[in-house]
Amino acid sequence: MPAALPPLVRVSDPSVTIESVKLAEDRGGDVVVRLYESRGGRARAVLTTSFPVVRAEVTDLLERPLREAETGPSGPVLSLRPFQILTLRLRPS
Are 90 and 49 within 8 A, CB to CB? Predict the structure, then answer.
């Protein structure tokens, strides 16, 4: 049986659910991650990736940039309100 591959992205808080991981619609090579807070409370989580990221932006649902994502030593730091949906655009190095 082949060895399992590590996940492309993961979050440190179990109340944050990763909904989708895909390539950006503009075909620029960036990775788009859509997540949401699933338990009705505030959440603070770190997003880690299995690939190096040089830039992380928060976008709207149409992938238009809103602001730079807060970044810590391990990756983007996410602060979500109850049931908030968040879209991140990650630029791999």
Answer: yes
